[in-house]
Amino acid sequence: MPGTVVVGTQWGDEGKGKLTDLLAPDMDMVVRYQGGHNAGHTIVVGDQSFAVRLVPSGILHPGTMNVIGNGVVVDPRVLLEELDTLGGRGIDTSNLVVSGNAHLILPYHQEVDRLAERYLGRHKLGTTKSGIGPAYADKAARVGLRVQDLLDPKIFRQKLDVVLKEKNAMLAKVYNQLPLSADDIAGCYLDELAPRLAPRIADSVHLVHEALEAGRNVMFEGAQATFLDLDHGTYPFVTSSNPVAGGACAGAGVGPRHLDRIIGITKAYLTRVGSGPFPTELFDDAGDLLIERGREWGTNTGRRRRSGWFDAVMLRHAVRLNSLTDIFLTKLDVLDPLEVVKVCVAYEVDGERLDHLPYHQSVLHKVEPVYAELPGWQADCSGATTLDELPTEARDYVRFLAEQGGVPVRYVGVGPERLQTVRVA
Ligand code: GDP
Ligand code: IMO
Ligand code: MG
After folding, report:
1. What whole-number distance in Å separates Cα of residue 413 and Cα of residue 294?
2. Nearest-angstrom CA–CA distance, 19 and 17
3. Whose CA is nearest to atom 27 of ligand 2?
4. Positions marked catalytic
5. Which end of the chain, N or C, is more open, meaning fewer C-beta atoms within 10 Å of its C-beta?
6. pLDDT average, residue stretch 390-409
7. At residue 300, does pLDDT exceed 60?
8. Regarding beta strands 96-99 and 65-68, do their DSSP bridges make them parallel or antiparallel, or are they unpaired?
9. Would you say 334 and 268 are in contact if contact means Cβ atoms under 8 Å apart?
């Protein structure tokens, strides 16, 4: 099974970092294929917690090569800071390379992200303000600067001068802001950041294919998630890339035949951060319990997430969109104290039952969830290491979700720590 994809099946923060780290010892390479430092992937080892944003979650394993793929948008300052932090904690990061074809996030991207959100007012998307949308927009408009441009100061400066002219006009005329200085940006990116990043800039596509051709195991780590996907998510409340498993092909430079195993990371309930529809959202004590027990505050932004019951309609759609072969069900332990656990199995709209996700967003906004109610287990499952050690009701809940999705649950998370994971035989 050389090609494994790790993909979020909900609205992010499902536990992709945890599973990627858990499987990394069996992987020769972990490749991040999209997104940027809007991601926050947590790895907990013993009493130590690591939160990575751009760095792939295989970084704690020196025998695993970590690759930031061409589909990622890279803020080199954030990347270097992240590497410094890891280095300061004794982690050897010499096993990390970044694709020369990845696009750069520049100061005007962050500035525009922040200002655009402010202009949208109450219609804002609730972005992470990392400059992700503006950087991908420039990539699509073919005015982006790439990581490889850091190696060619003349080209970098030429491209920057052209694009900054337009950006400064926009900053001044639309947003009433002061212009940014090309000298300052070039000074920072070329003189300060480029020399440090240069040794890590690589032909990532070549490296990935060398590994695959040698029969080595390569994992493709997604950021964000299926319902934040630019094409398939709850547009416009989405991110600006394609987290779905197919995104691994474009974002890492491999054909679909290399994707053998596709693991959907699925939280035992739902959360979302930022705006957008959320049919099973809770505004009561049960919702607060999920937030409190699940510690549902953004890894990077510190924002309180929204919470709700598990939505099997979404899971079934995610199974289709990603060709999931396995599910990693995370955070089962968060549900421990509940008397009753609800699962949305269908929607109802205008007296009609819907078993699949409506394509029309206006319909999604007004659907009513149809719930199955399952008995809670009201026991601590955080110490379980095998399925048999889970309370019967917890096992039934896992089985119910697997049946709803039509895909086997292969791992169950019962706590944040790396080893708090039940492997299902
Ligand atoms: P990612 O973005 O998908 O990697 O997920 P995040 O790291 O942003 O959010 C997941 C959070 O849940 C982190 O704080 C993890 O440490 C934590 N976590 C992961 N799996 C489990 C689990 O099975 N149980 C509990 N209680 N916490 C978990
Ligand atoms: P990980 O990889 C959860 C959300 C933002 C916002 C929308 C667009 O940790 O699961 P963006 O900054 O991407 O333009 O914001 O997407 N968002 C995430 N939500 N987890 C993430 O990443 C997210 N990355 C972006 O909150 O609603
Ligand atoms: Mg996260």
Report:
1. 12
2. 6
3. 274
4. 13, 41
5. C
6. 98
7. yes
8. parallel
9. yes
Q: Which of 341, 319, 221 is CA-nearest to residue 270?
A: 341
CA–CA gap between residue 265 and residue 44 (Å, rounded): 17
Cα(329) to ligand 1 centroid in Å equals: 11
- Ligand 2 pocket, 265 CB below 6 A? no
pLDDT at 404 over 60: yes
Q: Is the pLDDT of residue 347 over 90?
A: yes
* One-character DSSP codes across 5-57: EEEESSSS-SSHHHHHHHHGGG-SEEEE-SB-TT--EEEEETTEEEEESSS-T
Q: Does the structure show a pLDDT above 80 at 411?
A: yes
> 96 CA distance to ligand 2 centroid (A)?
23
Q: Is 132 close to ligand 2, i.e. is its CB under 6 Å away?
A: yes
Query: Is the CB of 204 within 6 Å of ligand 2?
Result: no
Q: Which atom of ligand 1 is nearest to the CA of 413?
A: 23
Structure-token match 């069900």, residue found: 329
User: Which residues are within 5 Å of ligand 3 (an ion), measured at CB?
Assistant: 13, 40, 299
Residue located nearest, by CA, to atom 13 of ligand 1: 42
User: Is residue 1 scored above 70 in pLDDT?
Assistant: no
Mean pLDDT for the stretch of residues 321-329? 98
Quick: pLDDT tens for 140-187: 999 999 999 999 999 999 999 999 999 999 999 999 999 999 999 999
The predicted pLDDT at position 298 comes to: 78
Helix ranges, 233-389 (H): 247-252, 285-294, 312-322, 361-366
